[in-house]
Design goal:
11 helices, Arc Repressor Mutant, subunit A, alpha+beta, 4-stranded antiparallel sheet, 2 domains, two-stranded antiparallel ribbon, 6 strands, about 240 residues
Length: about 240
């Protein structure tokens, strides 16, 4: 070894520095077009996208890792951030803004079949008594079905029949009309409408009479006194025979 040659340790250090510098040079700054294309793919995809899939979209000449790191840095601290998940990369709202998206939703109640049938009978036959509902349905009326419909606010007490026992009569409410998009009771589907919707067997239609309900009081119906039309009044008297 000549005196002009550097020591071995110094040579190794220079080689390591050369590799390090070469590594930095290989990771070139991504082009603006590549960044814009990746940004569009990540935003519009709707689902996380892997670096491999992103590379296939951007082409082999694009350093995907450099693009992702650039986007991650650009969006750091903003309302949305680029994050890596188990399924790939995606944009998501910043964790400290999660409170902006918190909301309370009331889960709609799924009416049981008995309650739906009871509601249909009341809607088309009102004013109708509990005994009449049971006669039309052919089964005893459960306390739970009526209470549920009253709780939702779709049925109401209308009055009492001027018959022995003065049974309570029931009808639908404005909330019922609003929920089903009906302007009035006259807008309830008639026989022809039910057949067109496939809800009525054409063979049975000839034998079936679809009544047209009215919001007017029936001749044999006496309106309830003020305060007696509350839901609590109905619950208190539900066990009474009609």
């Amino acid at each position: 070894m000549s005196q002009d040659e550097p020591p071995l340790a110094d040579t190794m250090r220079r080689i390591e520095d050369a590799f390090a510098e070469g590594g930095e040079r290989l990771r070139a700054e991504p082009s603006a077009d590549a960044i814009r294309a990746a940004e569009a793919l990540l935003f519009a995809g709707g689902e996380p996208i892997t670096a491999k899939d992103l590379g296939e979209k951007l082409g082999p000449a694009v350093d995907v890792a450099a693009v992702l790191m650039r986007l991650k840095a650009d969006y750091a601290g903003r309302g949305v951030e680029l994050v890596e998940t188990g399924a790939g990369w995606r944009f998501q709202s910043a964790p400290d803004l999660a409170g902006l998206f918190a909301e309370t939703r009331e889960a709609p109640k799924r009416l049981p079949k008995a309650a739906l049938e009871t509601l249909a009978v009341i809607a088309y036959h009102q004013p109708v008594t509990r005994a009449e509902i049971e006669e039309i349905r052919g089964v005893s009326l459960s306390r739970g079905s009526m209470e549920l419909l009253m709780e939702i606010g779709w049925i109401r007490l209308r009055g009492r029949r001027r018959t022995p026992g003065r049974p309570l009569t029931f009808g639908t409410t404005d909330a019922f009309l609003s929920h089903f998009g009906l302007a009035s009771l006259d807008a309830l589907p008639g026989k022809d409408d039910l057949k067109a919707l496939g809800l009525l067997d054409p063979r049975a239609a000839a034998l079936l009479d679809v009544p047209r309900p009215s919001e007017d009081g029936a001749p044999d119906e006496e309106p309830l006194s003020e305060g007696d039309d509350a839901a609590s009044f109905f619950v208190d008297h539900l066990g009474e025979d009609d």
